[in-house]
Amino acid sequence: MPHTFDPDVTSAVLRHMNGDHTDDNLLIARAFAEPSDAAITASVMTGFDGEAGVWEVTRGDAVSELRVPWPGGPIDDRPAVRREIVALYDAACARLGVEPRPHA
Fold first, then answer.
1. In order along the chain (104 residues), what is the average pLDDT of each group of 10 residues?
2. CB count, 10 Å around CB of 41?
C-alpha cells in the first residue's frame, strides 16, 4: 500500500505546483503521457502518494489521468516529494530535449 500524505501536505504541494509550476506540469505530461496524434494542451497536478504523482491531462476535449511513478522509488516524507518532482522535471526535460532551468 503506497504511503498517503497528510491532507495539508498534499494541498500545499498541489497549490504550489498548479500556481507556480504550470509549465512544469505541462512538460511532465508531454514527456510521460502515452503518444497520441492529439497534442496535450493542459496539465494539472491533482494528487500524489508514496509511489507516484498524478496529473489531469487535456488533449482537445478529452481529459485523462496520468500517473507517473517517482524516479527514485517509493517515498514517505515531505522533502522527498520535492526531490521526486524535481527528478520528474529533469527526466521530462531529458526526454523532450529541453534545457532544464537551474534548481534553487
1. 96 98 97 94 98 97 97 97 97 97 84
2. 12
Contact 45, 8 (CB under 8 A): no
Residue 30 near residue 58 (C-beta atoms within 8 A): no
Residues 6+ apart with CB under 8 A from 31: 91, 92, 93, 95, 96
C-alpha cell at 54: 498524478
* Continuous segment of H or E residues that includes residue 42: strand 42-48
Pairwise CA distance, residues 28 & 66, whole Å: 10
Q: Residue 93 is inside which H or E element, if any? A: helix 78-96
Q: How far apart are CA 35 and CA 21, in angstroms?
A: 23
